[in-house]
Design a protein that fits this description.
34 strands; 45% helix; 32 helices; 931 residues; 5-stranded antiparallel beta sheet; 24% strand; alpha/beta; elongated
Length: 931
């Protein structure tokens, strides 16, 4: 065949669908229409060109070898896939077959081609479809995050014929990518790329930029750090994708391939990357949910409280271990069952159902979010108390509820035991107080005889001139007084411990206190040959304090110093510490104390050492009482000592003890009234009606009385304390604090209790206000001079005056008779209250001396009977008792009211007459007693 012979064949070949060209002497001399279409070229762009110009450089070596083989005598070469180039430079794959044909006296090479583009495209689509399916399965089937991602990486390598693929997840706290899966050429995950910081290397840059990085020319990619590795491994393409979910970076996926990755592949990889990101996020949420559920289950099962969850129909959804133990049911046996039927007692089940229905209808649940106490029921039917808290569980749809329950049986029992113990302690305290009161009576009664007979015998031997007996009798009298002092110390300490020690504040000169103490203690100081030095300036000023307790404290310290010092010096020093405090220092040159002795110095019933009380005597109460007294008054006492050299005690007290101590004053001994009134005395009018106050005040003023008013009870009590009026008129019906409450408060304070009170009331309730009636009372053993002064107070105008002694102690009656008859009284005796009433029927006395503790009818009952008799109620009564009286008992004996007048039932003249009579009776009680 020659070129001219080729023309008719060429026309025929143009109709052949298979691309064909003829190569002669390495030049294309013919190409049919299908061939030109395959190369996207015109004949002039192909004819005369070398066949190698249209073959991809990667395939030129193989093509050159095949051409040489045919030129050297080969008849045909088998089909082979080669990469071709179109005129525009784009590449595509073809399957080429070549053979030799005669041409112009020599041979030429004819080649036919099959364009594989469509086939490759179909195959790529099949691979991508398979990859998507594989990744979808992996995302749903992987048990763990690492397993799921490893399946994805392996599918990418297998389906896309990639060299290797890797997937990293982001550790957000540390901003580092952690390699989770690796498949293909490399399978390890703990190598140098196991941890990639965000922003470092090509993977870290993809994470930082959140942009995919794609290339089909790895060798010329600036982000490839090891190009020698890429050349050696034949890497052509790279694709890396950030894995983003809801704008959050969760990881990076990347692959290397030894072939070109087409647009469809890259697009599909982008979609797959999105799916992997979602899978990572979902898997992490699943893991966190499982962990959260595990934590909740652990908390639920380890909780000490019962936790029970129910739905809106009260079906049990959860029942923890504590609930099983408390109620006696197994969880599996109660799940799904109705709660009320199992743990709510029958009497309360309807209440539960109605409460649930009300909540579902209105959304109102009074018990939600609060703790309540209620009764529950165990599996055996027994009921027990629980503490219950109910909360609603946030959820879509019908409401769910969780109940936290606690068995409070033990707590209830403990509270009952605590209440019982408290009641027993209170009973014990009352018993102690009663015992102390009884013991004070039992101890002071014989002392009364000892001291009284001692005094009488001293007088008699002096009158008889038997002077030799006087020293012994004085010793008996002194011993009785000493014993009385010890008893008083014990009783004072008991009052302090019981919180019943009363404090009486008054103004006094410091110098006066010191002089009184020194005069009292001087004989004790001189007993052991000691000298007393007093160092007190002339201008020490005044104190507002309880003088008795200050005096007793200093006396205790000085007597203590005198006891433990022989032929030494005792110093009492008083100094002012600024304007607020006084310092009293008592020092001695006595035996002193060791450090361990100082530590227990102020402990009751203890002295410096065990042998001290045997050698020096004493109970060990003096210093303990001194400290108690000082602290009650807002101060303190401290001590320091050197063995063999002496001791120093320092008392620091505020000048105004009432402000510092926080104690409520029992009375103010010498408080000055705001107004002393005129000659006829001060009357305090307490009434909430301003018109009534004004009317009574004007009436009293015209008659020469000074009238002060108060608009309510508290104000009236305060004014009574300040004024110390001769009389009080008191309205009963008042707001805030009615007249009876005011009356009770007035009569509970010793300095107000003796003030006569006229009640003004619209309510006829006379018995409520009548007095039980005591004019005075004395503590046994009775001091002769004190009793004599009281008797003189009630002496009648024309002696001899009748007096009635009521006492079950025969000796006491005998001593009193002798004393009274010496004062000019006519004496009648009675052994108890009943006999006393009988004596009253025979003759009305001007005065009654009454013991409280007696058999059959005691002094309290006698006082009540006396107060209810119009004939006897005004007889003055002087109580003689060895009993420490309570505030309530004092109120009974002090007398409450003089008279009750009903508002609207008396005239102003009657009121005025009652005021004149009552005030007059206070001035001359003897005359009142005869009326």
């Amino acid at each position: 065949m020659n070129p001219t012979q080729l023309a008719p064949i060429a026309d025929l070949l143009d109709y052949v669908a298979t691309p064909i060209w003829i190569n002669h002497q390495n030049r294309i001399v013919y190409i049919n229409a299908a061939g030109l279409a395959m190369l996207a070229a015109e004949a002039g762009q192909v004819i005369g060109k070398s066949p190698l110009d249209f073959i991809h450089p990667d395939s030129r070596g193989i093509a050159r070898d095949r051409i040489a083989s045919l030129t050297q005598g080969g008849a045909r070469v088998p089909p082979i896939v080669e990469n071709f180039l179109r005129v525009d430079g784009s590449s595509f794959e073809v399957e080429a077959t070549a053979w030799t044909i005669p041409y112009g006296g020599s041979s030429a090479i004819q080649a036919s081609f099959v364009d594989l583009t469509a086939r490759k495209l179909g195959e790529e689509r099949d691979r991508l479809a398979g990859l998507i399916a594989d990744v979808g399965n992996a995302l749903t089937q992987g048990n763990s995050l690492a397993e799921m991602l490893q399946m994805c990486a392996e599918s990418i390598v297998r389906r896309l014929d990639a060299a290797f693929a890797r997937i990293w997840t982001l550790n957000d706290r540390q901003q580092v990518l952690e390699l989770q899966a690796s498949a293909g050429l490399y399978t390890h995950i703990n190598g140098p790329h196991g941890l990639v910081p965000v922003g470092k290397f090509k993977i870290g840059l993809i994470a930082q930029e959140r942009q995919a990085h794609l290339t089909n020319d790895v060798m010329h990619d600036a982000r490839v750090g090891d190009r020698e590795w890429a050349r050696r491994e034949g890497m052509i393409s790279f694709a890396g994708y950030p894995l983003i979910v809801d704008k959050r970076l969760v990881g990076v996926a990347a692959l290397f391939a030894r072939r070109v990755l087409g647009p469809d592949t890259l697009d599909s990889l982008a979609t797959i990357a999105n799916g992997i990101g979602l899978g990572i996020d979902r898997k992490r949420n699943e893991i966190e949910l499982r962990a959260s559920e595990a934590r909740k289950a652990a908390i639920l099962e380890s909780a000490l409280d019962c936790i029970i969850s129910i739905d809106h129909e009260s079906h049990i959804l959860e029942f923890n271990k504590s609930a099983e133990k408390t109620f006696g049911y197994l969880r599996d046996d109660v799940i799904g069952k109705v709660l009320p039927d199992l743990i709510i007692p029958p009497a309360l089940r309807d209440l539960h159902r109605r409460g649930m229905a009300h909540y579902l209808a209105t959304g109102e649940g009074p018990v939600l979010g609060t703790r309540i106490e209620i009764t529950a029921m165990r599996a055996d039917g027994s009921e027990f108390p629980i503490e219950l808290a109910i909360t609603r569980i946030p959820s879509d749809g019908p409401p769910l509820f969780t109940s936290t329950l606690r068995d409070i049986t033990a707590a209830k029992r403990a509270q009952e035991d605590l209440n019982r113990a408290k009641e027993e302690a209170e009973d014990a305290n009352k018993a102690k107080s009663a015992f102390l009161a009884s013991m004070s009576h039992e101890l002071r009664t014989p002392l009364n005889a000892i001291i009284g007979y001692g005094e009488m015998l001293q007088e008699e031997v002096e009158e008889m001139g038997v002077n030799s007996l006087a020293p012994d009798l004085r010793k008996i009298h002194a011993a009785g007084k000493h014993l009385l002092g010890l008893i008083n110390d014990v009783l004072d300490l008991s009052k302090i411990e019981a919180g019943k020690m009363l404090v009486f504040f008054e103004d006094t000169d410091v110098k006066t206190i010191i002089e009184e103490v020194v005069n009292t203690v001087h004989p004790l100081v001189g007993k052991n040959g000691n000298n007393l030095i007093v160092d007190a300036g002339p201008d020490l000023g005044q104190m507002h304090t309880d003088v008795t307790k200050v005096r007793q404290s200093l006396f205790n310290l000085l007597s203590n110093a005198a006891k433990f010092t022989t032929s030494g010096i005792i110093t009492l020093r008083a100094t002012a510490e600024g304007a607020e405090h006084m310092i009293f220092t008592v020092s001695d040159t006595g035996i002193g104390m060791e450090t361990e002795q100082l530590a227990r110095l102020f402990t009751p019933f203890q002295q410096a050492e065990a042998g001290t009380s045997r050698h020096y005597g004493g109970t060990g109460l003096g210093l303990a009482l001194t400290r108690h007294f000082c602290r009650i008054l807002g101060g303190d006492v401290t001590a320091r000592s050197d063995p063999g050299k002496g001791s120093v005690f320092t008392v620091r007290l505020p000048r105004n003890s009432m402000q510092e101590s926080g104690q409520e004053p029992a009375a103010s001994a010498n408080a000055e009234p705001l107004s002393s009134g005129r000659d006829r005395g001060t009357v305090l009018v307490i009434d909430d009606d301003s018109n009534a106050r004004d009317l009574v005040k004007r009436l009293l003023s015209k008659e020469g009385f000074h009238a002060e008013t108060a608009a309510n009870g508290p104000q009236g009590i305060e004014k009574a304390r300040q004024l110390k009026p001769a009389l009080i008129t008191l309205d009963v019906m008042m707001p805030q604090m009615d007249g009876w409450a005011v009356l009770s408060a007035l009569k509970s304070e010793p300095e107000l209790a003796t003030i006569p009170v006229i009640m003004l009331t619209m309510v006829d309730n006379r018995n409520l206000g009548y007095a039980l009636g005591a004019a005075d009372y004395l503590m046994k053993p009775v001091d002769r001079e004190h009793l004599a002064s009281v008797l003189r107070k009630y002496a009648c105008g024309t002696p001899p005056c009748p007096v009635l002694i009521i006492d079950d102690d025969t000796d006491a009656r005998h001593r009193l008779r002798k004393l009274l008859e010496g004062e000019g009284w006519q004496v009648e005796e009675a052994a108890d209250g009943e006999e006393g009433l009988q004596k009253l029927d025979l003759r009305k006395p001007d005065l009654i001396l009454l013991d409280l503790m007696m058999p059959r009818m005691d002094g309290f009952e006698f006082s009540l009977r006396l107060s209810r008799s119009d004939a006897w109620c005004r007889i003055p009564v002087v109580v003689l008792t060895a009993k420490d009286l309570t505030a309530e008992e004092r109120a009974l004996l002090n007398g409450h009211v003089e008279r009750v007048l009903q508002k609207g039932a008396f005239s102003m003249e009657e009121l005025l007459e009652e005021v004149r009579r009552t005030v007059g009776a206070c001035v001359n009680p003897n005359r009142a007693g005869k009326s």
